Give the backbone structure.
Amino acid sequence: MTARLEAASGYARQAQELILSRISGPDPSLSVTTKTSVTDMVTDVDRAVEKLLVAGIREDFGQDRIVGEEFGDAGGDGPYAWVVDPIDGTTNFIYGFPAFAISIAVRDLSQDTTVCGVVLDVPRDRLYEAARGKGAFVDGKRIQVTTRSRLSESLIATGFGYASEVRKVQGAIFSEIIPLVRDIRRAGAASLDLCMVACGELDGYYESGLWPWDFMAGALIVEEAGGKVTGGLEPSPGSAMTVATNGAVHDELRTLVVSLATGHGARS
Ligand code: IPD
Ligand code: CA
């Protein structure tokens, strides 16, 4: 697996260069279009980065499957699948708000597990890497989750989807969680929220409505940093709910999120 982890980090570095070459200031002249709603934006850079990642993977690991956010399934019939988000935090990228990343996970389809993952925080120039069973690292240094054990003293992140009806419910849940925790952050890139749990900049994170490319690499990085990642009612993280914590506050946050989601008629 080392070969795929090293390759993923190499592709992420090339992608970072491409992204940086297109940042001209807080208002870059990008070609911006929308996807599922007027709030859900995509740029020519998202597409160019995904093409670059797919080309690299195709050349080095011809049989592997590839699934990306912008172009979907790029084929391949091997036992490994690459799940890539060329830019996680596209809104931030467009505005120049400093929280966006390239996220790459490699899955072993026979085991249904993520075997390695990298998240490259472009503005902070930090490379998070993990391989299953080998620990999590940022820029080569081992990282670890916090040890805080009370939810009331925990810094928690969350995020919101692009559909207004979904946001209404997410906002209602948020308003009931905020009085019960130290504070809440919404940085705008799920992969980075997860990495911030992994390296102790946050104690926990929850979000509904994520896609596999948003959370797969970051989830492995949290687990390898000693944390815990689950769904709400489901054992595994997924589109219904993703809860990631330092482990110590996991049950408390998960129970709270599930009961609030249920109370608001939402899936978890
Ligand atoms: C989004 C970001 C955001 C999260 C959304 C995601 P994108 O990804 O991760 O933080 O709240 O749910 O869709 O669209 O910037 O790749
Ligand atoms: Ca994206």
